Structures are given as structure tokens and as C-alpha cells.
Known about the structure:
Strand content of chain B: 5-15%
Shape of chain A: globular
Distance between the termini of chain B: 46 Å
Order of helices and strands of chain B: HHEEEHHHHHEEHHEH
Structural class of chain B: mainly alpha
Structural class of chain A: alpha+beta
Helix content of chain A: 25-40%
Order of helices and strands of chain A: EEHHEEEHHE
Largest sheet of chain A: 4 strands, mixed
Helix content of chain B: 55-70%
Number of strands of chain B: 6
Strand content of chain A: 25-35%
Number of helices of chain B: 10
Largest interface: A-B, 39 and 42 residues
Oligomer: heterodimer
Largest sheet of chain B: 3 strands, antiparallel
Number of strands of chain A: 6
Amino acid sequence: MHGRVNGGVMSKSSQVYSKDFTEKFDKQLRKLGDPTRVKRIKQKVDEIIDFPYRDICFGAGRWRGKREERVGDDRLMFAVCEQCRKEKHQQCNNCYNCENIPNNTIRFFETIDSHKYNEG
Amino acid sequence: MARMLLDKAIDQFLTLFLINDAFCCWDLPLLPNTKLQKLVFLSEKEMIDEREKGFNFYFIKLIHGPFSQELENDLGKLVENGFIDDRELRPTSNAKVILDDFGDMILRNPLFLEKVKVVNVQYAGLPLQKLLEIIYAMPWGKRRTIADLPQRTPMLYPMKSEIVRANFQITEREAENLLMNLDPDAIKDLSEAMRDAREGKWRSYEQVFSGV
């Protein structure tokens, strides 16, 4: 099943999270060519890093095991390593050298423009 | 009337459900394309008879009976996206993941999915020739059978919204997620992102957001 697991209460995590991004994520951001949109995505990334367990919503199908958050029509697909292990999603995300990545890491995989999937 | 995005998402999901259910119901070595066309036709007809908007394919009469070009195109997409096997039309593990992850939608729509199941139980196990004979002999219009209809006669098409008694229940988010899963471009992007993760090609926050 997929969907929103927990509305969650906004409280800044006491844990400090490190973060990294796939090359694909980087390329997608550069391809956007829209500084305002990139800035909004950056703000959302910062929010996720500060509150990683807020608004938990998992992807479905091929996106199983990845969390998603929206910024306008953009969706950010990511995983929190400790949660990925707890939920046994490692096989879905299949990150290189997973066993040596600390729990307090957030990995951002890609952005998706959802605009073409809704009829407004 | 052209199908809306939402209709396309529902059509492809129901087609996947029907194919999977046919293989679950019967020990089929394969599901011939022509048989699938007839099973979808029968399911859609059952729904339209009850004014239930599930399948939205446009069917016309062709040489082997009811046929939908839209269904044919959707099948091509399901094969291209790796949800069904090209030769046997057997559902792949990707299809099982979709049916599993959208399980809530299946539970929410028994009205539609029961019709598909009943059609599969009655017809999916029949030899194709027998199934065609049954369909040709079905009454259609006034004192006619499907066999009597001229080629290219329109048979089924999406209902006008004002006569619909029940709609397939799908949330906006589910529709978007389905459409994403059925979009080759989105799947390609995901594959590239996953390859980076698998090969350890990561960028730092500073590299990604420098200058923002």
C-alpha cells in the first residue's frame, strides 16, 4: 500500500542529517532553468532535512520505497536511510555501499514534474 | 470523444487487473491478443449495461468481432513499460507490484472488478474459437447478432457523464501515481537516478545548490 502514513507534528529533529543527491537530481535541477523553481526546491530540501519525519508519504509501483514531498507541481523523491532500513526498503532503493552509510543520511533521488499527470 | 488522462489511467489499470486475474483464474499458457480484446469488450459491455463508468475503450466491429485500437495501443504501452510479457501477455513482477500498491483502489471498486472476474471465470478459459462463436451469436440491437453487424460499426464508447450511475473510484493522487508508472519518460528518469544510486554517483548539497 502507498500513501500518507502520518500527518506528523512539526518538531525539528534533534538529529542532524547529512544529505546527498544523485547526479540525475543535479542534472534535472540544472535543466529546469528556472531560478525561482530551483529556490523553492532548495527550501523544500531544507525543510525535509529539518523535519524528515513530517508528512510521510511513500511512492507506489516503481517508486516503492521512496518518500515523496511536493513543491508546487514538482515532486522530490528521497529516502531517509534509517527509515529505509526499518521499513526494509533497501532492495527497492539499492544504494551502492548501503551498509556503510550512516542512518542519519537523507538521499535525494530525483525530481518529477507532475504537471503532465493532472488535467488541472 | 477522446479519453481523458484519468480515463486512460483507469483503462490501463483495469486491463492489467483483467490480465492478471485471467492468468490467476485459469492455467493459461498464454493470452492471445484477440482473446484479450474480447474479454475487455465483454467486461466493458457489462459495465455499460449497468451504466458504470469503468473501461472507456471505443470498440468497433472488425473481421474477428469487437476490436478497440485504443486497447491495442495501451497494450503496446504496457509491454513497453515492462508490465506484461510481449509474447504471452503474462503479467510481470512489475504488474504485481502495481496491483499490490494500488490494492486500496481494488478494495474500493468491487462493483467494477467483480464484473471483470465474472467475465474471466466464464470466458477466459475457453478456446479462442469457441469464445468468438459465443460473441458472434450475441444479440445486438433489434433482432440482430454481432455477426450480422457491418464492418466498422461502432459498438461501445465512453458514456456521457449525465447517464453514468457509478464512477470508478480513484483519488487524484492515485491517478497521478498510476500515470507516472505508465509513463516511459518517467520510468527512464527513475532508472537513471537508480543507476546513479547503485553506482554511488552522488553530489553534495553545495554542489547541487551552489549559487541558489
